[in-house]
Amino acid sequence: MRQFRERFPIFEHTTYLNSCSMGALADEVRASMIGYLDDLERDGSLWATWVSRQDEVRRRLAQVFRTDPTQVAVTASASAAVSSIASAVLTDPRRPRVITTELEFPTVGQIWHARERQGAEVVHIPSTSNLGIDMKALDAAVDDRTAIVSVTHVCYRNGAMTDLAPVIELAHSRGVPVLVDAYQSVGAVPIDFPALGADFLVGGVLKYMLGLPGVGFALASPATVQYVPSITGWFAARDIFAMDIHAYDPAVDARRFEGGTPVVPCLYPAAAGLGLLLEVGLDRAWEHSRRLHEQLRQTVLDIGGTVVTPAEHHGPMLAVEATDDHALVAALEGDRVITSCRDGNLRISPHFYNNADDIEIVGKALQRHRHLLR
C-alpha cells in the first residue's frame, strides 16, 4: 500500500491512527476543495456542475456497496438520513415500537427517543458478555407492534462488529424492516448491500471513506418504496425541476430520503475520497487492515494492556482500556500519535494507508505511557 500512503502528507510527520473519527487527508481530496473554489471564481453559477457532482457521489457510493444508484440517497449527514427514515416508518399507530440496542451511537438513539413525543415506544436490547446482541431478548421483543429494528454494525465505543445476518433474518420473518447504522464500518469493511438484505443502511464519508464532514447517505432497498418520509426537501421530489409548491410528489427510489440543496462544497471531496477508495479496493483495504489489527492486538497484550474489542468479531477500530482515556489520548498526541477515545477506552483505527511501522510506533508510545493503561 506504499503507493497510496504517499498521497497522505500527514504521514511525513505524524502517526495517524484515528480513522474512526476522521480519515487522513489525501492530496486529491484537498485539491478537490481548491477545485471547487476555482470553479466558482471562473464560472460563478455552477448549478449543472453541482447536480452532476451529487450524482457522481451517488454512483460511487453505489459502486462501493455493489448496488444500483437508484438505491442511494445523498444527505447532509447520517442524522438527516435516519430522521427522514424515522418519519417514514413511524406512521402506523398500531406499530409504534422501535427495537434498537445498547451499542448505538447517540444520534440514532436520540432520534428514536425524540419520536416518543409522537407515540413511539423505544426498546433497547442488551448486549451479551462478548459485546454482541442478545438474540433471545431480540426474539422476545420483535412483535406485531414493531415498526423497525435499528442496529449498529460496529459499535463506536468498543469496535465490536454485529453479526447482522441473524438480526435481519429474525426481523424479516416477522415482516419488520431493518436499519443498519454502518458509519463505523463503511469504507473499511466490504459491504454488499443487496446481499446483506437490510432494508436501510446509513453512514457518512468523513471516516474510512476519506471525505470531509457534510455528506452522509442512506441506502434503501426496493422493498422500502412503501415508506414515504414526511421530513423532506425539494431534492427528494420525483422531478426537482417541477418546482411544484401545491403537492408532495416524492421520488419513487431512494432519493425520496434526501432533503434540500446538498452541502455542495463537501460533494467535491466526497467524490474524490470515494474515487481513491475504489482505486484501492475495499477487499484489499480490509485485508490489509485486518493484518494490522492482529499485530496491534498482540502489541497491546505484550505490554500488559487490555483489549476490549472482541477478537472474533471486530470492525476496523480496536479499543484498549485506559485509567484515564483523555489523558492517554493527549499523551500520545504529544508523541505525534493521533488516536481518540470513548467510554473509557482508547480507540486505535488503522486503515489501508497505515503500515506495520505505525503499529510499532504506537506500541512503543503505549509502553511509555503504560501507567495510563488499565
Structure description:
This protein has a 7-stranded mixed beta sheet with strand order 2-8-7-6-5-3-4, with helices on both faces. It has helices at residues 2-5, 27-43, 47-64, 78-89, 106-114, 135-141, 164-173, 193-196, 264-280, 282-302, 325-334, 356-368; strands at 15-16, 72-75, 97-101, 121-125, 146-152, 178-181, 200-204, 216-220, 318-321, 337-338, 340-342, 345-348. Helices cover 38% and strands 13% of the residues. The protein has 2 domains: 2-25 and 281-372, Aspartate Aminotransferase, domain 1 (Alpha-Beta Complex), CATH 3.90.1150; 29-278, Aspartate Aminotransferase, domain 2 (3-Layer(aba) Sandwich), CATH 3.40.640.10. With 374 residues, the protein is of the alpha/beta class. The mean pLDDT is 96.
What secondary-structure arrangement, pairings included, does this model have?
Layout: H1 2-5, E1 15-16, H2 27-43, H3 47-64, E2 72-75, H4 78-89, E3 97-101, H5 106-114, E4 121-125, H6 135-141, E5 146-152, H7 164-173, E6 178-181, H8 193-196, E7 200-204, E8 216-220, H9 264-280, H10 282-302, E9 318-321, H11 325-334, E10 337-338, E11 340-342, E12 345-348, H12 356-368
Parallel strand pairs: 1-10, 3-4, 3-5, 5-6, 6-7
Antiparallel strand pairs: 2-8, 7-8, 9-12, 11-12
Helix pairs in contact: 2-9, 3-9, 4-5, 10-12
Name a few traits of the molecule.
12 strands; alpha/beta; 2 domains; Aspartate Aminotransferase, domain 1; Aspartate Aminotransferase, domain 2; 12 helices; 374 residues; 3-stranded antiparallel sheet
